[in-house]
């Protein structure tokens, strides 16, 4: 017996996640240019571009295939999607507000060296509730990793280590997290496409 394919919104959400991870992976990886030699930073960015190319291609494949998935949602799915969508919006908005307030405060107190680690800490913390909302364990792992990277960056700055050394390291650590998340979503997208193909194949 072949299981029915997941709802179309699951496919669209996975594609959106891949695009978001692509953007943030490039953004974090670009921080290596803040202190590393150009050759080393370029190598990191090149690896990020390779990963992002794969993520974007998978996202495009999912969007092209989304009409092969049912648009209808069960009553339980509809309630879950509505509840999780609202919670996601609130958390994402709170994250953006906290980042903005933190940057303003750090600039006002002439502590700009802490900007990148503090942003990474806020990003890491926001993954914890995401794991509960979307019932994904990987969010908890990535949250812990990103928070540890961020706290190490804060501690390094406080210890007097030059920001030129700290910012690239924190950026690389955060980029590793978003890349890992992208790989997770890439594999999830492959599973969605495979299930759609199986459902579309007549039983022989």
UniProtKB/TrEMBL annotation:
Annotated keywords: Membrane, Transmembrane, Transmembrane helix
Transmembrane domains' residue ranges: 9-29, 35-57, 87-108, 114-130, 142-163, 169-186
UniProt-recorded name of the protein: Uncharacterized protein
Organism: Paractinoplanes ferrugineus
């Amino acid at each position: 017996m072949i299981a029915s394919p997941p709802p179309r919104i699951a496919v669209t959400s996975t594609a959106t996640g891949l695009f978001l991870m692509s953007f943030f992976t490039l953004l974090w990886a670009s921080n290596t240019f803040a202190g590393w030699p150009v050759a080393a930073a370029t190598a990191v960015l090149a690896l990020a571009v390779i990963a992002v190319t794969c993520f974007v291609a998978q996202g495009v494949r999912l969007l092209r295939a989304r009409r092969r998935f049912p648009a209808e949602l069960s009553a339980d799915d509809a309630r879950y999607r509505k509840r999780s969508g609202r919670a996601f919006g609130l958390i994402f908005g709170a994250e953006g507000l906290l980042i903005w307030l933190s940057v303003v405060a750090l600039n006002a107190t002439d502590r700009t060296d802490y900007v990148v680690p503090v942003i990474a800490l806020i990003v890491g913390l926001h993954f914890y509730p995401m794991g509960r909302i979307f019932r994904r364990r990987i969010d908890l792992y990535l949250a812990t990793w990103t928070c540890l990277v961020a706290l190490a960056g804060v501690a390094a700055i406080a210890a007097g280590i030059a920001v030129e050394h700290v910012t690239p390291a924190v950026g690389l650590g955060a980029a590793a997290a978003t890349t890992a998340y992208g790989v997770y979503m890439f594999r999830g997208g492959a599973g969605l496409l495979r299930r759609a193909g199986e459902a579309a194949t007549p039983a022989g």
